[in-house]
User: Fold this.
Amino acid sequence: MCKHSPTCPNAEAADHEAAKAVLRDDVTGFARLCNGVILFNDTGELLPDGMPIAPHRSGHVRQAAAA
Assistant:
């Protein structure tokens, strides 16, 4: 699917979020990456096979949000 050079990591790779965005909608809060992964502004993800990944913000962001 990726035509970038060097190619972007595939959806199964640990660094799949490093793929380039091919579509971004800041109004609705998502980006579709060239490997088929959809990233949401809340750091959640949807993999090409339909498997969701829960938001995974870093600890300091969670603490600031709770304050």
